[in-house]
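Task: complex structure prediction.
Instruction: return structure tokens for all chains below.
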Amino acid sequence: MKLIDNIKIARLGLQRNRSRSILTILGIVIGIAAIIVMASMGSGAENLILGEISGLGSETIVVRPGREPKGPTDIAETLFSDSLKDRDAELLSRPSNVPDVIDIMPAVFVPGSASYEGETFKPTIFGGSAEFMSQAFGIKINKGALFNDLDTRQRASVAVIGSKVKKELFGDADAVGESIRIKDRKFRVVGVFADKGQTAFFNVDEVVIIPHTTAQTYILGINYFHEIIIKVSGPDVVARSVQDIENTLRDAHSITDPEKDDFFVVTQQGVVDQVKTIIGALTIFLASVVAIALVVGGVGVMNIMLVSVTERTREIGLRKTVGATTKDVMNQFLWEAILLTSVGGVIGIVLGGVFAFLMGLAVQFFTGLDWKFVFPIGSAILGFAASALVGLVFGLYPAHQASKKSPIEALRYE
Amino acid sequence: MEKPILEAQNISKVYDVDGTKTTALRCASLKIYPGEFVAIMGPSGSGKSTLLHIMGLLDRPTDGKYTFEGKSINEYSDDELAHIRNERLGFVFQMFNLLPRASVLENIKLPLLYSHVPENERMTLAQKAAEAVGLKERIDHTASQLSGGERQRVAIARALVNNPSIIFADEPTGNLDSKSGGQIMDIINKLNEKGHTIVLVTHETYTAHYAQRLIRLYDGKIEDDIKVDKRNVDHEFMK
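Output:
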């Protein structure tokens, strides 16, 4: 018997039991749709995060104190580590130590809120350089100006604020020239950033930047930095600049064994690799959950196929009587199962694609992120193959049961 | 003399259901020749259907020798028997055994699906068979839309479509009223006149009138095997 005949018979068999066929494949449809949604959202998120990371600039290198975090406790250690100080920043800014350095910004993070008259808001407060931030993240100034190196050296109490901070504290009134209060200290607003929104690391609109010297001395009472951000002349010198930075700091901290570094270096490529690793691991985890769902769906298919085989005992007897061989009957039921789950797979792929697209729209609408819908072609092909395979595997037993029936017993079956 | 199509020599059939042995057929011997119209009669449980199943290569005897077209069926595998059934035999059953949601034409075509007949030829053959049983106008109806008599005609067309050498009919009129039954028997009789060998299992006397030969089974044994004149209604065997 030819393949095309097998498929035709199987298709007719399914069409004659349409509603049951649809219910049978529901598990497969949901499983495959879940795969597509996950894969689509995964690559959408990856694209988004990678896009934001590239916004950081491929020529930017971040140095952080402490050991490279491998777990949650290491991150806490990083925040309290005091290994990066003024001297380090000064050493790193010297072209004799790091020849490709263009600019450098030490940074500290200030917890707490900002207030103006009766209004209070909890922004992300940085001690750093407004000029450097504006350059590195491509943030434009809307009103006023950025504070400069002189302000930093003089530990001036000045701030540049994000558009949302301005709106929360001042409403429609002008903010430049007014003073906001951070930890009982007054800061004069010298500039307001233009709207930019969420980036991968922080929301620009919710940021307050003050000189790092002011933050260290008057607010935090520390003499170290949480981060030193270094801009080098181009992406192609990042690798050797990392070497220069590591050598300079090891020399300054008298470290001979790189295992004992009290600082670590983060580059865009490193973050990209990390993000890819995290998303990859997450996708594998979710895929294994979906694989379980597919197996459950497959068992459902097997169950219904077994019922169908029993129900159609007379049909099997008749087919055998008029000349169907064991293999013919086996093939018929196997193809029914494969066709059933493959159709389920296709429906799942389409539904999953539509759902992922709608979810992308929702993300865009509710978060304002620049989300791009990605149709995961690889996952679609994989999902289709997986659904056909489920049919093959879980159809095998019912098909074998069907083919075993003797024509006489099958004809007699009531 | 002509060679028989099939020959049974002392065949027996014992069913073993959960250790309980039931003998359905005891040492039955018979030969059927091309062109014959044989009616097998007997009360229920006398082994009529068992004999028909063995003769129709649907079952194997537990004892004795059965040869089909000169070859012992022990030499064939189950799948080879399926091929012989497909090419050489036709079957009509009391319960019609159609695919209820398939069309008349699809039902008639069914045996051809398992043959080497190419698709375009299948259509022609199936239409010819439908015409032969007077169902040409209804080939697009589904089997479940037809009356009992029409369904049995579909079954006959299906038995006929591969141009078999023997048609086995197991109580073909058992589920029909006498008028439809008569029409079915007329069709079967016509097939016999065209040269098809017919083996008919029946317990209704009127259907046996069409046969040239009557075999009577009782308790798994062949009691009588006699030739009768066609349409000889008054034959003493009938009484």
